[in-house]
Amino acid sequence: MRKTSADTDARTRRGVLVTGGSRGIGAAAVRRFARAGDRVFFTYHSGAGPAAELVTELAAEGHEVTALAFRQGERDSHEELGRALAGSRVDVLVNNAAVGSATVARHAPEPGPDRDAAFLRVNCLGPLWLVRQFAPAMIARGYGKVLNVSSVGGGVAVFPQFDVADGMSKAAVAYLTRHLAAQWSALPVDVFAVCPGAVDTGMFRASTLDGLDPGRLRALTSGLPGGRLIEPAEVADVLWWLCEEPARILRGAVVDASLGLGSDPAALDRTPGHDDWTGQPGRGW
């Protein structure tokens, strides 16, 4: 398929927005796109310090990166983000910001309706609203990529040891991807979902690894498909590649980027001597 002039111009100097870009997969994505020559904006919620450090790091390398405070899923903050980016082109939207079964406590300390609402507000309403904010301009320009970061839990497989609302919200992100792909089938904007597995991030450590003693940690890690954790930079490479021309044949795909955990979700339950990695079956409900 021959590239249009819009494709060529956008690839030369794209505007990229990465949500949740101060840590983990988001920070790795910011580095990957910036070092490829893109103009990167990224959001942060509670990571002002890491966000400033990332800007400084990449600026020292000659890359133009901007950090923006953002409360995903809150209407006033979405409006503020739109004003902050007015006049800036967003060609690639990476919907990465999310909360997990442990980090959701920052938004709702106690289990119950408020926590359920936080999962759905941050993890699914936020990405939906961002698509509605930025995709129309992509369509009008004739070029755009939307990359939704879901999770192997909910997006591909079921992990009942985690909070049910967490899995529901990640499943909704996968559905959003399929729905947009159908809705945009004749439009010049490609959409994908990426479902990481056991990635060495603060979120996964908080939900799974931090409570394990060294022996159980080694047992869990070695028992994972591939025998190791995934590095954030590996997921960032997948996100970046999905914006390349050969990836267009995958438009609408929900990509299992879990190193095989999506095919063998029981691997998280095989720590010797325990019914699951927590030793507390049914905790996720």
TrEMBL record:
Residues 265-285 are annotated as: Disordered. InterPro entries: NAD(P)-bd_dom_sf (IPR036291), SDR (IPR050259), SDR_fam (IPR002347). It holds the Pfam family adh_short. Gene3D superfamilies: NAD(P)-binding Rossmann-like Domain (3.40.50.720). Belongs to the short-chain dehydrogenases/reductases (SDR) family. This is SDR family NAD(P)-dependent oxidoreductase. It comes from Streptomyces millisiae.
